[in-house]
């Protein structure tokens, strides 16, 4: 028997706002005033403040003194730099995992493939991240995992901006299916090449 952990109002609000940010309902640069959120969701301002603090901690929002929390704007230069840093980490993963199937990554791919065309983009982002994180975990390097985790928030925000580049989540699933196939078949040189090609982001 699996026991479900109760979800607090703070966590529920954070989850609702997270989905809106990652689905593009709240645009980059948009502010999230506490009073407006309190009225919209029917919760007290301290609850809103805690939920926003969770998302700031995750890196999905930023907050500056005397200013409402807001969604960071990820520019093309930010994305280029993100890929510059992600590439060597994922290439290390490819070298370590080449020639093996990674069950957790395949399961994430199945979930991604099963999303309907109208699914919230936040769900696409979640499965995309789960797939890549499973591959990194399969490399069995705690330091690689920690380094990769530091890029998670910016990666998720970058993926949120890709929603207009893919009309159907299955397009993204097909790209990842091809990547997993090359990694599983090897050799390491081909896996590294496939990862390098994969990290060339499609522009909206």
List the helices and strands and how they pair.
Blueprint: H1 9-22, E1 31-32, H2 34-41, H3 45-58, E2 69-70, H4 76-97, H5 103-113, H6 121-138, H7 142-149, H8 152-160, H9 169-185, H10 188-198
Antiparallel strand pairs: 1-2
Describe the structure.
This protein has 2 domains: 62 residues, Arc Repressor Mutant, subunit A; 123 residues, GntR ligand-binding domain-like (Four Helix Bundle (Hemerythrin (Met), subunit A)), CATH 1.20.120.530. The mean pLDDT is 90. It has 204 residues and is mainly alpha-helical. InterPro entries: GntR_C (IPR011711), TF_FadR/GntR_C (IPR008920), Tscrpt_reg_HTH_GntR (IPR000524), WH-like_DNA-bd_sf (IPR036388), WH_DNA-bd_sf (IPR036390). Pfam families: FCD (PF07729), GntR (PF00392). Keywords: DNA-binding, Transcription, Transcription regulation. One of its GO terms (molecular function) is DNA binding.
